[in-house]
Design goal:
This protein has 561 residues and is an alpha+beta fold. It contains ten helices and 27 strands. Helix 1 crosses helix 2 and helix 4 packs antiparallel against helix 7. The protein is elongated. The N and C termini lie far apart (69 Å).
Length: 561
Amino acid sequence: MRKRLLSLLLAFGLVSGSLALAPAQTVKAQESSADSELSIGDIHVQAKEFASDDVPDAYTPKSRKSRVGASNSAKRDTYWDQFSGHVYYDQLDSAERSLYDKLKALADSYLTGNTSATSRTTSDGAQGYYTDTVEYTGMTATEAFQVTTIFCFENPQFYFLNDGIAYTEPVDSYFFDYHEPGTVSLGVYSKYASASSRKSYTEQYKSAIDSYISGASQYKSDLAKETYFHDTLASTISYNQSTTDYNEDSTESQSASSAFLLKNTVCAGFTKAFSLLLNSQGIENVGITSNTHAWNEVNINGTWYVTDVTWDQNRWPSHDYFNISESELRSEDQMTSYNSNIFFWSRSSSEWVHTPLDYYASIRPVCSTDHSSAVDAVDLNDVTQKTSYQPSGNTSENTSTGNTSDNSSTGNTSDNNGNTNAGHTNSSGSENTSGDNTGNTSGGSTSGNGDNNGTSPVVTPETKEIEKKQPVKPDYFKVKRVKKGTLRLTIRTSSKVTGYYVYYRQKGDTLWSTKYVKVNGKSKAFNISGLSKGKTYQLRAYSVNSAGTQSKPTKTRTVKA
């Protein structure tokens, strides 16, 4: 059987694991070092040729399932099928779909069956655990590798798969009319190689996923669900700073397992975890990879946007990379330099971090619509976003001194562990110089800023119980520029609040400045001066009571100083 060793980068230049110790060189000087996502090697799929005497038998599924990756409205055969995407699959030709379908059936057999992965040797002498092989025809080994990579990103439920792909090339002999298909096998983390141990981990994985899905079920819209998944991942999962550690058997960084089970991951883990959760709600999305990074594109209300959970996590609390266009992404992007190994020589390259690999060009959605208030990250505390919201009677708004209050409850949202996820539900949107004017609900009664012309929403007992323990957000939080470099803030509050912490920063900065303001249950107006003239600032406030307990934050105000 004729074989040819592909480089780890193949035709589209993925980063070699051997370069893991080489940090990326950034061009944008003022970015915080906390944005360590630029470290080389987060995306490092390894393609290796099987040793000639160690090629496993081809896998033949016993029965053909319904079309893999069908639209979200299509019938799902099993619990796990809800986590498969379809956008990439729909763009593949018949030969590519055939390989994709075989990979899906193969991975399913390891996820739900009793098959153990086998230790095998690749042509470079490396040992690893691999699945059985599937055969492919009608494409080159490079194209098969691309389909396999797409499959792994579009089916993140297969948490046990690592970044390894082993293959043999197809053989065509025109002289002897001899044809032999190529094969592909998927790498498996050693931790999950045994079928018996994998069964236990599968239950843990399912439990972790179900907790996220349960948390999202309280929200009505796709936008609210997307916000919930984004914020919960960004606030509860840490970024793996040990990006030079390429012991993937311990970090599992290229799998969603590192996010859901280890709570520590890199961009690939964030991307796959976010994609899996969106798929569960029927929200179209795709994962995108560059030479050094991974992120998502999401379809909200019929329009595609870029969302990068990793970069928001690095700046949390932040929604700077939530539902933005490619042009907006590029305005905040960074250049990175890296070395790539191609066969036996090395080449130094530079590109934008968010530069999709070439094979995405014809299959990924176009994100050309700029961010607007219609796709802001929603306030997860707002009961109007929840399925339990049941307004009765007249729902007209309150009016006080020309400012609007929407009578929204500010109950805290619990995270997937049932604990209050305080301080992680703020949103940053387009420039806004008016307050959110959110009325406070306590003990079932609403106190707004003026006469109540309507009736308050029905608030669940759980929400009221939480509010007894936590101070509420400001009734009214307004920011406006009074002169260049000076902003005037006006806060109105309830009697149980003693003070507010106001956080502010120049947009794009990582660190926040803090100002504490005593209010003792009264309204307060004050200035923040000494700001950079003409620069855009983000501001938010947190209330605190006499016991020192801090509330959820207000929505972010974005205004030029």
